[in-house]
Every structure is written in structure tokens, then in C-alpha cells.
Amino acid sequence: MKSIYYIISAFTLLLTGCTDFLDRSPYNDLSGNTVWTSDANALMQLNGVYKQTKNGWSMQGYCYHFTCFGPDGYDYFRNSNIEMATATTRDGIFLAAYQDYYKVINAANDAIANLTDNPNITPKLRERMIGEARFLRGFSYFMLWQLYGGVIILDKPTQPIDTYLPRNTADQVRDFVIEDFKDAIERLPLEYSESEYGRITQGAAVAMLGRTYLYDQRWGDAATELHKLMEEPYKYDLVEDYTKLFDWKYERNTEYIYALSFIAQIGYGTAYDSWYGNRSSFINGESYSLGSHIPFETSTYADGSPIDLSTRPKRSNYQDEVSFGNDLIQWYANVINSPKNWINALGLI
Question: Which residues contact 230 (CB under 8 A, 6 or more apart)?
Fold first, then answer.
């Protein structure tokens, strides 16, 4: 009992005798009162917006995740909802994409609101950072527009309790995306110093604006924007050897308009080796994005007739993998391009 008394007494003394002891700013984080008061702190906070793009769906794993929405099916080795066309809006894969892009949007909105007309930040740097944030927000809404059509547009910091809003239309989301990219183009630099490589450039914003027009079937506007990247002051160009695009020794070549930077230990591979590998390789054996045969066996043509699987090439009839693979690919292509148009029955295009 004495020990309990002494502990309580000591704690009471601590609270009454040292009133400012617990009133301290965290050592490993920035408080809301100090984030936007200097160039250095604001840059750290903006870096946090970039970090959000490396989590979950946003930019890291972009190609992998969108392959998962195809007929190969992200989870065909789990429950086969996508490839069997039984997936619903309640499946976690769709919810995860929705949530992750809104995390970027929320962080970008906070940056834009606190940087706008902020006298504590050097004007030139302030404008550039707003451009970076608007690009990241525009990219996130571009993806949401493609995935879900009309979604809720949030253009300022919003508390969770205030986010129960009606969905905007798909056209409104598209227009919002276009304005974000246009604004970013006006604010962003052509390039950065070596120490800041990996930040959003003006060329990246032009490319995404052109892509938005392309996806909206505004062919003339898309051609106008994308053609700009082939002329001065931009310095983009195709590399002579296509294979160099996949070799880390040739990173930062002229063909990259924007690449998400990360640090990997050379020689040890990355997660992509397992995502796009094969089940025989000496890795995890995950191979999430391998093509699946199940959609062809469980789906029909649009007119309800079954796909004739008896014509599919069999491995036992071939001497090597290459010739078998070529014929198998051609068989799949013929099915997909059939006048019966089976894939439309799945609603995938």
C-alpha cells in the first residue's frame, strides 16, 4: 500500500510542481502551428503528400492494381470474384482504391489551403508547391473518375463529419481534373536540381492533361497537349533500345515523363518480381497478375452461347513453350475479338 501511495504522491507532485513538463511539442512530428511557418517545414509537409502516393493504390503499384481489374482477376487464387464476374461494390479491392485516392486528396487539400497566400513561405517556392499539390489531387481524381465516374469533389480541407455529401457527376469530376492540371502547368518548373529529382514537373502535368482529354475522347485537344512534349522547351524523346527502360542503369532517361522514385537494394529485386513473376521462379510464387483461363470457362459470348474450349491449344501437342505460347495467345485473341464479343458480357470494356 505504501508503494502505491508514494507513486501517486510523486505523480501529483509532478503535475503540480512542473506545470510545463507535459506541455511539449512532439520531437518526431510537426504540429499544425509550425508546419506552414517556414520553407523547410512546408517542404517536409508536402513530402508527406508525396508519401501518400506510395501507399496502397495511389501511384505505387498502379499498373499492378489495374491489371487486377481485368479478366485475369487480382484474386483468382483467392476467391475469384473478379474473373468469375461475381464481384460487387462491397468487395474490398474497390473500397481500398477509393479510400487510398481520397487520402492523397485530403493531404493535397490541406497543403493547397495552407500554402495559398501564405506570407511565411518564399513566393516562388510557394507557387511551385501548390502546383505539385494540385497535380497530385488532379491525378487522384483522374483515377477516381476512371474507376467510379461521378464521385464527391472535395476542394478544401474537410472534416470526416462533413464528408457525407452527394456525388458529383462524372462530367464535373472530369472538369475538376482538367482545371487542376491546367493550374499545375502554370506553376510547375520544367525540371529540378539533382537533389530534388522525383518531384512533379510541368511536363508531367501537360502529359496528364493530354491523357484526360484522350480518355474523354477529345482527340484534337489530346493531340495538341501531347504534341507539346515533343517540342522545346521539353526534352523528352524515345530511347533507341526499348529494353533499357527496364534496366536500372538507364533510369532517368529521356523517355520518362514522370517516374515515382524509390530506393531499392540493387540485386535483390522488388515486389514487382513476385507480382509479375511466374509460379516456378525462386521467389514468393505469388504472380498476382498472371492471365487466367477461368473467365473463358465460366463466361459466355454476349449472345449466351458458350466458348468452344475444345479448340484451345494443348501443351502436350507442342515441343517447346514458345510455339505453344504463341498459338495460345492467338487463340485467346481470336476469342476476345470474336464478332460475338464475349468480353462485353462481363462489362469489362
Answer: 236
Q: Facing residues of 306 across strands?
A: 300
Alpha helices in the chain (DSSP H): 2-17, 39-52, 62-68, 92-115, 123-148, 170-187, 202-215, 219-228, 271-275, 294-298, 321-336
CA 216, 219, 221: angle at the middle one, nearest 5? 90
Cβ atoms 236, 254 nearer than 8 A: yes
How is 271-306 classified by DSSP, letter by letter? HHHHHSS-TTSSS----TT---SHHHHH-B-TTSPB
Give the count of alpha carbons within 13 A of 36, CB side only. 16
Mean pLDDT of the chain: 79
Return the closest-CA partner of residue 130 out of 53, 183, 207.
Answer: 183
Q: Could you tell me the pTM of the whole model? A: 0.75
The answer to whether 57 touches 96, Cβ cutoff 8 Å, is yes
Q: Which of 35-39, 98-102, 200-204, 236-240 has the highest mean pLDDT?
A: 200-204
pLDDT at 10: 45
Phi and psi at 300, nearest 5°, equal: -125, 175
Question: What are the tens digits of pLDDT across the range 128-139?
Answer: 999 999 999 999
The DSSP string of 260-274 is: ------TTS--HHHH
Residue type at 54 in one-letter notation:
K
Looking at the DSSP bridge assignments, the partners of residue 300 are 306
Q: Strand, helix or coil at 209?
A: helix
Q: C-alpha grid cell for residue 197?
A: 529529382
What digits encode the pLDDT tens for the residues 292-305? 677 777 777 878 88
Instruction: Give the per-residue SS3 of 164-197.
Output: CCCCCCHHHHHHHHHHHHHHHHHHCCCCCCHHHC
DSSP one-letter code for 344: G
